[in-house]
Amino acid sequence: MNDISQVLKKEYQARFEGQADYRNGVWSALCATIFSKHIPPESTVLDLGAGWGEFTNNIQAKKKYAMDLNPDCGQNVAGRAEFLHQDCSSRWPLENDSLDVVFTSNFLEHLPAKDIIDRTLEEAFRCLKPGGKIICVGPNIKYLPGLYWDYWDHYTPISDASMAEALSLRGFKITQNIDRFLPYTMSNGKQPPLFAVTAYLRMPFVWKYFGKQFFVIAQK
After folding, report:
1. Does 4 score more than 70 pLDDT?
2. How far apart are the first and last CA of the chain?
3. N or C: which end of the chain has fewer CB within 10 A?
4. Cα–Cα distance between 60 and 63 in angstroms, integer?
5. Other residues' Cβ atoms within 10 Å of the Cβ of residue 91
6. How far apart are CA 26 and CA 192, in angstroms?
């Protein structure tokens, strides 16, 4: 695991260094405008594949966990969340029915096989309380058949439909499925001003023109 952790650390430093402030601003807008509507502040939340911890650090919740193999994540969420440095498909160190929300964004496509995704979703189902929800955001292969593979560490193609089916097969009930949500990237390449990002998030009728990522919510 140490070797994988160091590879992830180098990859994400190369990909995101120099963008930290802008990325944090984007995540602040996302949490305030969209995700806070689905996550009450009294919730216990696990950020699955937390990366550099932008969601964890910006969402309001009573108790927060951040899970990732990248050791930088632990430094970035220190003092705000409990860091779980582990393989997400191994048993989580949490009790059954202990979470209100599992959140994951731009992560599951990085897992190298569908059986690993399945085991991860099974752990999410075990740890969520009855009525708890999992929120999944990710690049939609349906609208990115070529660009999807421009990231070397994208392994598993996922669409909104296949994400919903994977969740249903693990026992979840789909409550929301938006096939076009965010543009493919919100921080790499062009960086629109943050007021424009907030305006976009408040106008779902334009998502169908620019959205390349799905937004799926399911309930236990």
Report:
1. no
2. 30
3. N
4. 9
5. 12
6. 10
pTM of the model: 0.91
Token pair belonging to 6: 């160091």
- Helices marked H in 86-170: 114-127, 160-169
**Backbone torsion region of residue 171, taken as left when φ is above 0, otherwise alpha when ψ lies between -120 and 50, otherwise beta:** left
- Number of C-beta neighbours around residue 115 at 10 A: 10
On whether the CB atoms of residues 136 and 163 are closer than 8 A, the answer is yes
Can you give the length of the chain in residues? 220
- DSSP class of residue 188? S
Amino acid in the structure at residue 10: K
Report how far apart, in Å, the C-alpha atoms of 162 and of each of 90, 124, 142, 143, 172 are: 22, 17, 10, 13, 13
Token pair listed for 144:
């990115």
**What is the three-class DSSP state of 102?**
strand
The model's confidence at residue 153, banded by pLDDT at 50, 70 and 90, is confident
Burial (Cβ within 10 Å: 0-12, 13-18, ≥19) of residue 209: exposed
**What's the CA gap between 60 and 43, in Å, rounded?**
8
Distance, CA of 215 to CA of 181 (rounded, Å)? 6
Among 180, 191, 196, which Cα is nearest to 29's?
196
Quote the mean pLDDT of the chain: 92
Give the integer Cα–Cα distance in Å for 58 and 32.
8
Give the whole-angstrom CA distance, residue 128 versus residue 214. 22
- For residue 190, the model assigns a pLDDT of 74
User: Is there a contact between 184 and 154 (Cβ–Cβ < 8 Å)?
Assistant: no
